[in-house]
Amino acid sequence: MPAELTVLALAGILLLVHIFAAAHVKTKQYGVEWNTGARDEELPPLGFLAGRLERARDNFLETLPLAIIALFGVVLADKADTQTAIAAWVWLGARVLYLPLYWAGIPLVRTGVWGVGLLALLYVLGVMLLG
């Protein structure tokens, strides 16, 4: 299997980590009844940590479609190579680092890590379109 597809499979696992981390902390704040209920009621604002984890998850969900397009696309176009595989792993590594950086509230480093991940995906898109 191409490395780009392996990275996408691992990105699915990372998505689950994001979802469950945010849900766990939200459940601590709102209670098990909220988690297992219809969630129709008006709730107080999220606490500090729950808000961070939810925003980190949302950020991952915003960038994941771009990763799917780039990584699956380069494989489908038969343009995957060692450099696109490295870029895929760089993107995944950046996304893995992003969650604890956001969780810990380290803004500048977090933004830099996000930028490295974005550049890796832009490289893959460039190969797909121009390579």
Features:
131 residues; 83% helix; Four Helix Bundle (Hemerythrin (Met), subunit A); mainly alpha
Q: What is CATH's topology name?
A: Four Helix Bundle (Hemerythrin (Met), subunit A)
Mean pLDDT value: 94
Roughly what percent helix? over 70%
Given as residue ranges, the uncertain stretches (5+ residues, pLDDT < 50) are none
Q: Shape from CA axes? A: elongated
Helix tally equals 5
Number of strands: 0
**Annotated CATH architecture:** Up-down Bundle
How would you classify the helix and strand content by structural class? mainly alpha
Instruction: Report the radius of gyration as a whole number of Å.
Output: 17 Å
Please write the CATH class name: Mainly Alpha
Give an overview in words.
There is one protein chain. The protein is mainly α. The chain has one domain (3-130): Membrane associated eicosanoid/glutathione metabolism-like domain (Four Helix Bundle (Hemerythrin (Met), subunit A)). Helices cover 83% and strands 0% of the residues. It has five helices and no strands. The chain has helices at 3-30, 32-36, 48-76, 82-104, 107-130. Helix 1 packs antiparallel against helix 3 (48-76), helix 3 (48-76) runs parallel beside helix 5 (107-130) and helix 4 (82-104) runs antiparallel to helix 5. The longest helix is centred in the middle third of the chain and has 29 residues, at 48-76. The protein starts with a helix and ends with a helix. The mean pLDDT is 94.
